[in-house]
Amino acid sequence: MKRIHSSPHPQRQRGIVLIFALITLVILMIGAVAISRSINSSQFTVGNIGFKRDLSNQGERALQIVMNAVRGNGALAAATSRNTSLASANYSATLLPTNAQGIPNALLSDTAFAAVGDPTKDINVSDLNITIRYVIDRLSTTTGTCSSSTCVMANQTVFGGSSSEWINSQTNSGAANNANPSAVPEQPIFRITVRVKGPRNTLSFFQSTLTTN
What angle is formed at CA 145 by the lines to CA 178 and CA 105, rounded to 5 degrees? Predict the structure, then answer.
């Protein structure tokens, strides 16, 4: 009877296939982990952007309060009321000291804020655990009536006469018998700085400038 001997080669081939299968599995696992981490990172970034946008929207509450204060019968509506500081309106008639980033120290320290503002004017959004605090300061070196030597002024230009003629409000609007009534007078500039404190003591600062006339 003839004996048939099996060859050892197929065993070795099956072992090589197993090694390649394991390598492929490891590569697939690494890819799956990388994709998962990428998705988590994207979700985290989107969440942060949404959170910051919400804080920015909440800061608009303070801007609306400030605009109401300088209009109509507001506490700062009269020009004379803006010549001196008014803590009850979180207002300083002179430029407030700031840090290197331009944020008033009054919004970085409760003690500093108490010297220029009223903590009871803080806006509390309790359902979102958000607190909004703001200060208004005039860009001026002294109290009293503003002038170009003491205050930062908005020096606007407007069209007058023909469309090619520009009128400098600083040199024309205050002149006697002004022949260019369309010229806008210089106006002092006020700065609004808002601090929004969110969950986990997150702080966001927003700043804007305005004129009152």
Answer: 130
Cβ neighbours of residue 91 under 8 Å, at least 6 residues apart? 69, 75, 76, 82, 85, 135, 136, 137, 138
104's CB contacts (< 8 A; 6+ apart) are 96, 97, 98, 135, 137, 193
Residue 54 neighbours by CB distance under 10 Å: 15
Q: Is the dihedral of CA 161, 165, 169, 174 positive or negative?
A: negative
**This prediction's pTM:** 0.67
User: What is d(CA 212, CA 190) in angstroms, rounded to the nearest whole number?
Assistant: 8
> CA 147 to CA 159: how far, in whole Å?
24
Beta bridge pairs of residue 91: 86, 136
Does residue 175 register a pLDDT over 60? no
Highest mean pLDDT among 12-21, 42-51, 55-64, 138-147: 138-147
